[in-house]
Amino acid sequence: MIPETAHPRPGEARKVLIAPSILSADFGRLRAHVAEAVDAGAEWLHVDVMDGHFVPNLTIGPLIVEALREYCRERKVILDVHLMIEEPDRYIADFAKAGADVLTVHVEASRHLHRSIQAIRALGVTPGVTLNPATPLSTLEEILPYVGNVLVMSVNPGFGGQSYIPSSTRKIERLRKMLDDVNPSAFLEVDGGIKPGNAREAVAAGAQVLVAGSAVFGGDVFQNIGALRAAAASAQDHASQ
Length: 241
Ligand code: DX5
Ligand code: ZN
Hints:
Layout (H helix, E strand, L loop, with lengths): L16 E4 L9 H10 L4 E7 L11 H13 L3 E7 L7 H7 L3 E5 L6 H10 L3 E6 L17 E5 L14 H15 L4 E5 L4 H10 L3 E4 L1 H4 L3 H20 L1
Parallel strand pairs: 1-8, 2-3, 3-4, 4-5, 5-6, 6-7, 7-8
Helix pairs in contact: 2-3, 5-6, 6-8
The chain binds D-xylitol-5-phosphate (DX5) and zinc ion (ZN).
The site of zinc ion (ZN) has 6 residues, from strand 2.
């Protein structure tokens, strides 16, 4: 669970948070690779769970979350688990037990979304909701007051290393307004194709949490996180002028 005090407060400047996606990490030395990102200042760690049904790829289960839990607790890093799976309710308890702080489900994958969100919260985990690029924001309208995190997918989910879909920026902007109205303390996260070249526009549109896989773990992790941070900061400096 993300502590209540760590959530953004209405009217206060939101600190941009970097959430490296381990999908692009070297799994042969996962813990060490993750540690490079944390040492470089990453605040969240994004875990992409895929089932081969909801998306055409198979990835990570609760075992990997559990393997990272102790390290993340020690370093006060938020374990941010993105469930790209059909019928997510079947696995919510397993991921909660494994140590997820945030569990984000797809609006397209949950038949009873409100029930899924309540079940996540009841297990002491921050509930999140997300939607595919072609899914309209209106599908989130009723659930927004109940969640702690809203994730905008800026690529079609399934694989790392894809290109940011430009219309995502406008979607972030519109979601920002919706959240400001009904749930300003929720996090607004963006996931897919985030690079230093577009991080600025995503932050300027209102994103607070930047997921980045290939842009963090491809090459020098320290430099990569520095470049993302600088791009995000440039959007915030611009906004405060
Ligand atoms: C895509 C995943 C993303 C992905 C991001 O289905 O949800 O989290 O790993 O990777 P990049 O940053 O390389 O697009
Ligand atoms: Zn993801």
